[in-house]
Amino acid sequence: MNDFIIIGGGVIGMLTASQLAEAGHGVTLVERGRCGEEASWAGGGIVSPLYPWRYSEPVSRLARGAEVAYQALSESLLANTGIDIEYRRKGLLYLRVDDGERAFAWAQRQGWPLERVDAGFIYRQEPWLAEGLGEGLWMPTLGSVRNPRLCRALRTRLNALPNVTLLEHAAVQRLSVVQGRVRGVETTRGRLAADRVILCGGAWSGVLLAEHDVAMPVRPVKGQMMLFVTPPMPGGRQLLERVVLADGRYLIPRGDGRVLVGSTLEQADFDKSTTEEARESLWHSAVAMLPALAECRVEHHWAGLRPAAPDGIPFIGAVPGIEGLFVNAGHFRNGLVLAPAATRLLVDLLLEREPAIDPTLYRPARRLGRAG
């Protein structure tokens, strides 16, 4: 029998599996499709909440812990898999921010570097941004990862660990619960037994819990994004080399010169279809920030479903009323951002280690109700 079953093969599920396996435990990860091909693949990969000063303290704590962890994670995955996840710490430029004083107050509390910069600084960093920019905010330490490569590296790592079983293309139909205790899961490929089950199902996490009268308010929020192919620029530069954020939309450069623009926020239940309206909106936002993109080819346009919980605070810990069942879900736009810290917190609780972050504010027992 497995020590742990993990439901959901996104970055949260895969990182949880690797940490438990590296601690010597037997793990089966069950994924209804292929690992890393849902929200974790669809995101942008900025290693920070978009406007971090607008988030609550619990989110800030996890984000700070994750930022510290990403460098080590990047190096470990490269050493163990040969895959470079393109963790880049080239900073982030904020344009047209209307709550700068709030941002500086937050940065001072957090000990996070933040600077007000003028047009000269902006155009030295990114010379092909739109004309007419007067000033902005600059976070020099913020970075990004290329999330499809992160997903591929984590899956490769799990396949190399002898005490991990990846069961892909196997949908979990129901939890097996006997006398208030989880005993495993029923899947489309048979029953799996374990005394501890971890639900990392993203936007789908609440569906299984509802069958056991646990109401977890995690809903899907669709986000559409696009990717441009850009040409080489003079002096060996890329058209864009740093993350730029303006009016709620962002541009993210990739190591090969591609530029990603995102994203929409849509209440569309579990619909992942793309729309022409979103395509036009994203294109105009991208060109407004970086006019040369008007002459660049759009290589891809896609959508993903973010798992939104109230206040953006994820549920992390034991599910009340079902012994042996745990959850790590509801990270909204920040699944990739928070993943290293959020998974470490849950694994610390599972293995009865002293957590680096106080788990109280994420504990499901404080926030979950009964369904119906």
From TrEMBL:
A Gene Ontology BP annotation from the UniProt entry: thiamine biosynthetic process
Presence of keyword Signal: no
SUPFAM superfamilies: FAD-linked reductases, C-terminal domain (SSF54373), FAD/NAD(P)-binding domain (SSF51905)
GO cellular component: cytoplasm
Ranges annotated as spanning the membrane: none
EC category name: oxidoreductase
Family matches, as Pfam families: DAO (PF01266)
Pathway annotation from the record: Cofactor biosynthesis; thiamine diphosphate biosynthesis
Entry keyword annotation includes Oxidoreductase: yes
The entry's keywords: Oxidoreductase, Thiamine biosynthesis
The FAD dependent oxidoreductase domain, residue ranges: 3-349
E.C. no: 1.4.3.19
Cross-referenced InterPro entries: FAD-dep_OxRdtase (IPR006076), FAD/NAD-bd_sf (IPR036188), Gly_oxidase_ThiO (IPR012727)
Domain of life: Bacteria
Protein known as: Glycine oxidase ThiO
Organism: Billgrantia kenyensis
